[in-house]
């Protein structure tokens, strides 16, 4: 049994930014999340791929459990083609080919269901609810995206009501709640049931809202950013992975604050290269060094 099970998409991304291009880069919410979370704890991935998939070794070489990845003969792996301009906060979708992901119906094994922490990547909300019902996890975190808010909002609200933690970006939080400020948006989300709400703000950082208090961090300053794809999932992986490593399913505010910092730092590495290239070879020592720099950068003494 792994301490953390992640359910989500596994994909090939063809990416173009002002700084270069990659074709068939390994991606998907479950992949980016697992590579980040694996820096802190043992992770199992649940997903589906076609017989064209050849990226499993990237995960297994990092010790990630891939027993939950189902390979469908005769099918193709989910693929996304996207392009970014100089505003790297905005992606233009050029093409999406669902392949076998269109019929994804995740079923947890006994061991996966017993994981104390579960992450529900941004798959269809009804599938998130189905996986949640199968799991015995004491801490369940959920991510989503603007598509599901647009076409399956009621189902998504139902899924949110059944989890402990919701992780959204600022645009998604506003879109979901209709609130202009993030404080009001976070309060509206928490009223649905989650005790932990994290709002990602891209290059501007992240904010944590709980009934224990509020916490926020800026973005880590980077000289070069090549590709933001997967940064949000890498943040979630660092955040949830750190919490899973503590063994607490009801983390206190101090652990949550540190988790936000670790998530932010892992995401900062993700954007330095294309796809999963940087996080694939990222080490815990590199993370700890940058977290220490982040702490020094954001702390001050009250007179």
Question: What would your notes on this structure say?
Answer:
- The chain is an alpha/beta fold and 303 residues long.
- The protein has one domain: UDP-N-acetylmuramoyl-L-alanine:D-glutamate ligase, CATH 3.40.1190.20.
- The protein has twelve helices and 13 strands.
- The protein has helices at residues 29-37, 56-60, 110-114, 125-134, 146-151, 153-160, 170-177, 182-190, 231-246, 253-270, 277-280, 284-298; strands at 4-7, 11-17, 20-27, 43-50, 65-72, 79-84, 91-97, 117-120, 139-143, 165-169, 196-200, 206-210, 213-217.
- A nine-stranded mixed sheet has the order 5-4-1-8-9-10-11-12-13, with helices on both faces. Strands 3-2-6-7 form a four-stranded mixed sheet.
- Helix 2 links the parallel strand 4 (43-50) and strand 5.
- The longest helix has 18 residues, at 253-270.
- It is globular and about 65 Å long.
- The relative contact order is 0.16.
Layout: helices, strands, pairs:
Blueprint (H helix, E strand, L loop, with lengths): L3 E4 L3 E7 L2 E8 L1 H9 L5 E8 L5 H5 L4 E8 L6 E6 L6 E7 L12 H5 L2 E4 L4 H10 L4 E5 L2 H6 L1 H8 L4 E5 H8 L4 H9 L5 E5 L5 E5 L2 E5 L13 H16 L6 H18 L6 H4 L3 H15 L5
Parallel strand pairs: 1-4, 1-8, 2-6, 4-5, 8-9, 9-10, 10-11
Antiparallel strand pairs: 2-3, 6-7, 11-12, 12-13
Helix pairs in contact: 1-9, 4-6, 7-8, 9-10, 10-12
């Amino acid at each position: 049994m792994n301490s953390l099970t992640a359910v989500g998409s596994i994909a090939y991304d063809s990416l173009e930014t002002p700084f270069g291009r990659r074709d068939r880069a390994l991606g998907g919410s479950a992949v980016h999340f697992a590579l980040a979370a694996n820096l802190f704890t043992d992770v199992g991935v649940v997903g589906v791929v076609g017989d064209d998939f050849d990226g499993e070794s990237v995960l297994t070489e990092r010790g990630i459990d891939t027993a939950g990845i189902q390979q469908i003969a005769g099918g193709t792996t989910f693929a996304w083609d996207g392009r970014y301009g100089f505003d790297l906060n905005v992606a233009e979708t050029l093409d999406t080919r669902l392949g076998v992901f269109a019929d994804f119906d995740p079923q947890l094994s006994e061991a996966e269901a017993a994981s104390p922490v579960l992450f529900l990547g941004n798959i269809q909300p009804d599938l998130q609810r189905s996986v949640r019902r199968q799991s015995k996890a004491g801490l369940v975190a959920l991510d989503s995206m603007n598509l599901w808010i647009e076409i399956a909002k009621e189902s998504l609200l139902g899924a949110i009501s059944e989890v402990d933690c919701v992780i959204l970006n600022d645009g998604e939080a506003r879109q979901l709640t209709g609130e202009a400020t993030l404080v009001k948006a976070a309060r509206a989300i928490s009223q649905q049931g989650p005790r932990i709400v994290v709002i990602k703000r891209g290059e501007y950082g992240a904010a944590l809202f709980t009934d224990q208090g509020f916490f926020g961090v800026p973005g880590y300053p980077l000289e070069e950013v090549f590709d933001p794809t997967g940064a949000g999932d890498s943040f979630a992986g660092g955040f949830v992975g750190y919490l899973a490593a503590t063994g607490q399913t009801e983390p206190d505010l101090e652990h949550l604050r540190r988790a936000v910092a670790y998530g932010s730092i892992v995401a900062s590495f993700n954007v330095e290269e294309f796809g999963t290239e940087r996080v694939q070879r990222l080490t815990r020592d590199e993370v700890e060094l940058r977290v220490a720099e982040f702490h020094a950068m954001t702390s001050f003494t009250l007179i």
